């Protein structure tokens, strides 16, 4: 651990090589602002919800408040300072000014980086697509109409050849002006003392990671979208050593194995959304992944992290319950597989031992199974669920078989509504059955009452969304 802590983290920022010392768990946001003087990257919520700290890491849009410094090793980081070339504005910057997309400007750097990431993706610049691309970036004074228009106009100008490329310039290349502020150089930054953070140990292989866990009680970190928020909330930087598992190839991949869909623990929500195998065999998984946070969170957050974090509001967990998935664990003693139905044992508690890592999940693929998901939150993007539901069934002669109704955000862990499942079993989906199922699930559950929602609201909503799923299946 000492050697890892002493080694600086080498990466590039706006085309300039840097090497930064200090604890590897320091937030990339703090390094950019405090060490490198790049104050265009703003701190807003510090929880990955506002997008003010958005930067590009190897071309991917991320929240720099959720990226530990160690995970920037060897990466290309791009901040808003890279956009203008001397006095010449980047085309997207110019479009923001022309459309009136800037007022106070606090959100603007993150919006610009989100816009660049969208333009570089080559996606069609229709309004819905642009709005989804910037859903993780909050603006409270300009409004989104002008910002959306600026991104669309830049895309249209690029298609018409009025500017070069999707954004006018390769952001990985240094601009004419100094890329770093405050006299920062390779090896450090302007004499500033590094901000605090936990130590981070890296492991190159699964076996190495398991040996480290067997010897030292470290906390694994992958995407950091939950861990970094929790560490910041504790207010005691450096108190929890971390084990960086993000580079473990053994925990990656989506593949078919003996009639099951295997999804590696390090699979991100963005990868699930893009996967042809998921689209073909379990589209509900991709549908729910699209509801987790916004682009920045989806690019970093992992299925394994959602599983191990064990939040009652974990969006992916009801999907795994409803599809009879199993969690695959590995330790020095070997591998073991635990059904999702018994994996979550209480509030943020699981059956995983401290010396084990989640390898992935196995989802059986019975013929004819349908899976439907619903999520209710305060808004469409970046919302922690008030109620999340997954319903699975196989249709046989018009009747439902092997019914599963899985729920999140209503108890101390994800649960199944077993009595409601029994009511739906062997029935034909009709409006009358939908009414009975709605009443049954509302009577069966004992929802939690917390700051996000009341128990009475959760009970009513759970009944309504189950009714809608059944009615939709009936075609009524």
Helical/strand content category: alpha+beta
What is the β-strand count?
Answer: 19
Average pLDDT, to the nearest integer?
Answer: 90
Q: Could you give the order of strands across the largest sheet?
A: 2-1-5-3-4
How would you describe the overall organization of this protein?
- By secondary structure, the protein is an alpha+beta fold.
- 34% of the residues lie in helices and 20% in strands.
- It has 18 helices and 19 strands.
- The strands form five sheets. Strands 2-1-5-3-4 form a five-stranded mixed beta sheet, with helices on both faces. Strands 9-10-15-11-12 form a five-stranded antiparallel beta sheet. The protein has a four-stranded antiparallel beta sheet with strand order 16-17-18-19.
- β11 and β12 form a beta hairpin.
- α3 crosses α6, α16 runs antiparallel to α17 and α17 packs antiparallel against α18.
- The longest helix is centred in the last third of the chain and has 20 residues.
- The N terminus is likely disordered.
Feature tags:
476 residues, disordered N terminus, globular, 20% strand, 5-stranded antiparallel beta sheet
TL;DR?
The chain is of the alpha+beta class and 476 residues long.
SSE layout and pairings?
Layout (H helix, E strand, L loop, with lengths): L1 H5 L2 E5 L2 E5 L7 H8 L18 E4 L2 E4 L12 E3 L12 H9 L8 H14 L5 H7 L10 H16 L40 E3 L3 H10 L3 E3 L5 H8 L7 E3 L9 E4 L2 E5 L4 H6 L1 H6 L1 H7 L5 H6 L2 H7 L7 H6 L3 E6 L2 E6 H4 E3 L2 E2 L6 E8 L4 E8 L10 E10 L2 E10 L6 E2 L1 H7 L6 H14 L10 H20 L2
Parallel strand pairs: 1-5, 6-8, 7-8
Antiparallel strand pairs: 1-2, 3-4, 3-5, 9-10, 10-15, 11-12, 11-15, 13-14, 16-17, 17-18, 18-19
